[in-house]
Each structure stands twice: as structure tokens, then as C-alpha cells.
Amino acid sequence: MGVNLDGVGFAMMAELAQMMETSGGSIVNIASVEAHTVLRHFPVCTATKHALIGLTKGTAADYAPLGIRVNSVSPGVIRTPLTMAPGQKDVTDRLEAKIPTGRLGESDEVARTVAFLLSDLSAYTTGTDVLVDGAFLLRE
Fold first, then answer.
1. Average pLDDT over residues 40-66
2. Helix runs in 22-97, H state only
3. Does domain 2-134 have CATH number 3.30.1050.10?
4. What does the pLDDT look like over 61-79, one tens digit per residue?
5. CA distance 114 to 128
């Protein structure tokens, strides 16, 4: 709870205070595909990711009239040092085999989505979550 939800909440409080002084802004929270499904045997992690989406949407509704947009991005299985580490690579390989696009995501693909949501190109977008998962949640 502390990292996945409280940390984001406290960071947003600081960001919102600054944005209210400057009359607007954009926040992008990083959630996870776990916010849209159940990660078996990890119910607290699942609950915190679901709650993060709720926090994002609720904050977006409250602050939209002030010109502040709040969205989130839910990455799927992304190639990182953690997912490629010894002891984790076998799990990553099993997950990769289930991704309909046939590959892991790359961190720059998540970053480009965040950049879009922070930019004026998404000026009418708030309170939404964007999946960057290679259709992982659509698998059979």
C-alpha cells in the first residue's frame, strides 16, 4: 500500500499544489495491467493497482475544472533489468509467450505514451488509463 498507493497519493498532492498556483498541468500515474485483472497469489498488489486507477479517475474529476488533467498508463510485460534478471527471466519468457504481439514491450514505448498524455496533443483527455501491453489482456 505504501509504495503503490500512498506514495503516488503524496506525490500527487505536491504536484497538484504546484499546478494550482500555475493554473493547470498534467499528471500521469503509472499503474499496471494488474489494475485490470487479478494477479493470483498477490491480492494486495492487485488491490493497490486497482485503487490507483480509482485515485487517478477521482482526482481527474475533481481537478478538471481547474485545468489539471490526470491520467494513468498501465504497462504490460516490459523489458527491464528486473524482468531480464536471473531468476525472473523464466517467468518473463513464459509471459512473453502469451503476448499476442509476440514480444515484450520496451520502456521507450511506455515513455512515449506518457509523453503524449503530458502533451497538448491529449488536451481533452483526463481520467483515463492507457494500456501499453501488446494486447496482453486480450490473450486467450
1. 94
2. 43-63, 89-96
3. no
4. 999 999 999 999 999 999 9
5. 12
Specify the amino acid at residue 6: D
Locate 42 and state its grid cell. Answer: 498477490
> Which position has the grid cell 481547474?
66
What span, in angstroms and rounded, lies between the C-alpha atoms of 140 and 30? 25
Q: Contact, 65 vs 59, CB < 8 A?
A: no
Burial 44-55 (b: 16+ CB within 10 A, else e): ebbbbbbbbbeb
Q: Write out the three cell numbers for 30.
A: 503509472
> Domain residues of the chain, as ranges?
2-134
**Which of 54, 32, 42 shows the shortest CA–CA distance to 136?**
32
Q: Which three cell numbers stand for residue 2?
A: 505504501
pTM, to two decimals: 0.94
Separation between Cα atoms, residue 83 and residue 104, nearest integer Å = 10
Locus of grid cell 479517475: 57
